[in-house]
Amino acid sequence: MTEWLKTAVFYEIYPQSFMDSDGDGIGDFMGIVEKLDYIKDLGCNAIWMNPCFDSSFKDAGYDVRDYRHPAGRYGTLEDLRRLFEEVHKRDMHILLDLVPGHTSEEHPWFVESGRDEQNEYSDRYIWTNSWFQRAEGLPYIAGECKRNGAYIINFFKCQPALNYGFLNPAEQWQKPIDHPACLATRAAMVDVMCYWLEMGCDGFRVDMADSLVKNDDEIKSGTCKVWADMIGRVHERYPDAVFVSEWNNPESAIGMAGFQMDFFLDWHGNGYNLLMRDYDASGRDDSFFKRNSKRSIQDFLGEYLPKYEKIKNKGLYCLITGNHDMIRAACNLDERELKLAYAFLFTMPGAPFIYYGDEIGMRYQNLPCKEGGYTRTGSRTPMQWDDSLNHGFSIADPMSLYLPTDDCDGAPTVQMQQSSKDSLYNAVRELLMIRREQSAFAEHDNLEIVTAQEGIRSFAYRRGNLTMLCNPSGCAETLAVDLTGTEQIYAIGAGRQEGVKYVLEEQSFVICLK
Ligand code: NOJ
After folding, report:
1. Ligand 1 environment, Cβ below 6 A
2. CA gap 196, 81 in Å, rounded
3. pLDDT (tens digit, 9 = 90+) per residue, 387-398?
């Protein structure tokens, strides 16, 4: 595994909303440069920046129009290179967001592909043979181009799917994955990756990494084959390039496709979702970290552990505080609950990912859809730095901001939380400091569950010489764990040894060092 990943803690930046350096109301590269010391001081040493390429912005940049040029609203290519340099000067690393499965319908490849005349790009996308031929169950669009055919889309209407082929082609228009046209798509994407690695980025977060080959099987063996080839070719030139997949299947992504990291993503009702976001519109909230939840950690572990065990010696299965597609965790968890949840996430194996603003408990806003965000828009608002105009995000007229800032009472800011000893921000910072100091956290195959039972909310787990104990409930609980002779090096709330049992006070999290 690339060495720096062992101690990596990532900070996800939505560039539109992090810091506006030129006062036009939208965040930019130089704004991020201004705040690198803040990110480093928080304890993060790596960045994942959401898409920053030229785009039609119908899906906030996930509809790329030109893979080789940054969108003007974030700055110039020179500014982006400067960002890479400034990141490296601080011993940090940065991943760009690569969208390999689709482009914008305005991408020149697609414009060419949609022409009636055969050309180099005719098969860069997936077309049926005629305008009335449907796509055998895949989402398609017809009637938009001169070409006599319908094309497959990958996500929104504006995002035609690039052609990496079909696992078992069943129709004449479905190409096998090693068809020259599909190999050309791969080669084009490898070129894009090498271009940015040469420019100075350290790797990629890969959007919808599992979506490349159509009609793939359950383990996505076709898509895995394509990735193994593409990543292999990139690694021949850039052996340290890092890849993290939006996949949620580490066995395929890490075990077969060659990614070093995969995310445990928020899919409704899954183990990750149950930790912090198990609620519905009726007011029911049974998220594990809610004080009054009835859940046991088994609901999470039952899904996490089998996946973790399969890849623990090969790569990192990563836990995140949230991301640009999720409702912010602070929407339903209060500060104490967030502290406990983060303490858990940051002491588990894998590289933690902190979504910008989650370290201060930024709240979810109810906002109309912006750039294809829909319900996600409310998690994408400007970072709240201080109490000055626009919370210090921008000097623009508040009416011309990309999205409005949280102006309701009690909106947290970095400045406010830095000055309060017990703040969420300071808890995050301290936890990340301990993560840096303790070498057991740099091993990622060392997780042992000490105790986690149905019917009791508290649980304990070990990593090397460290034992973590967590009680998310509103009552003290006793665990059959003997930690005599260990030193308590971190505590939210309190815990103590009583004979051969360990008593954890309500809503507590403790780390003991042997
Ligand atoms: C996943 C991204 O995280 C999301 O924001 C985007 O809308 C889709 N992929 C489509 O690219």
Report:
1. 59, 62, 99, 155, 207-208, 246, 324-325
2. 10
3. 999 999 999 999
Query: Are 224 and 257 in contact, with CB atoms under 8 Å apart?
Result: yes
- The predicted model scores a pTM of 0.98
Find the helix packing angle between 180-199 and 77-89, rounded to 10°.
60
- For 414-440, the pLDDT digits (tens) are 999 999 999 999 999 999 999 999 999
What SS3 class is residue 118?
coil
What does the angle CA 327 – CA 330 – CA 336 come to, to the nearest 5 degrees? 150
DSSP per-residue letters across 25-40: SS--HHHHHHTHHHHH
**What is d(CA 368, CA 374) in angstroms, rounded to the nearest whole number?**
7
Residue 326 amino acid letter: M
C-alpha dihedral sign at 136, 58, 183, 121: positive
Q: Which atom of ligand 1 approaches the CA of 325 most closely?
A: 5
Ligand 1: which residue has its CA nearest to atom 2? Answer: 207
Atom 5 of ligand 1, residue of closest alpha carbon: 325
**Any idea what the Cα angle at residue 501 is, between residues 497 and 502, rounded to 5°?**
50
